[in-house]
Amino acid sequence: MEKKKWGKQIETLDIGDRKRINLSIYDKRTEIAKKYNAETAAKYDKTIENIGAAWWHSDRPVTRVEFSLGRDVLREWGINSLEDFRLRERAIVEYLTHKWFRLLKNPKVRGTENDAEIHPIWVRVRALFLQYFCCAEVPLVKREKPTRVSVDSKRHENQGGGSFISAAAPLHGKQNSVGAVRRCLIDVVDRYIEAHRHDIVDKYNSRVALTEVAKGILFGKESEAVEPYEWFNTPLRE
Hints:
Elements: E1 2-6, E2 9-16, E3 21-27, H1 28-35, H2 41-51, H3 53-56, E4 63-69, H4 71-76, H5 82-100, H6 120-132, H7 153-172, H8 178-195, H9 200-214, E5 217-218, E6 221-222
Antiparallel strand pairs: 1-2, 2-3, 3-4, 5-6
Helix pairs in contact: 5-6, 7-8
């Protein structure tokens, strides 16, 4: 959570990731006071009109609650057009204001979050969102991104080699020959195998299965190519 202050007063609370899902709760009165000028007057005068003169000229807070969604999240939900969004807007609001974020009336107790009472202010915020975004209620179904499997052994060899060097250097320090470095790297590989001996064969064969499918070879049969993610998490066991 990121807090932005104007003087001693908290102006904005930012929660989440701006590239995916982000919630901003901020002081609209402060924003207008900072940005109001001849160029922005028409826009902000309309905002003040919508708020209402009585409220605007009172001491009551003017708080804006704003969600933003990144393009990748929309794609994961199958939203590629304005019409897609309109069909799912109520489900989106339900998810954002209850599952993704909500304000509780009392301090959170681990394990009881789903049953905890919602703060009355957040109940009101949810109601206003749902009043505005009230179109057809098509449920959200997250589309998992396919797992891409590389069969470029040279690239993996270079990446793994760099990782093993990074692991060996602090263990063995400076070396003066290729042979000495080789022994250091073998030691790191042996350490890794020993630490993972209970499942390393399954991990290895699982990767073999993925790369075979990625190359269009399924259990030794040269048939049509199959997307590798269809066989993800299905290791070949002895």
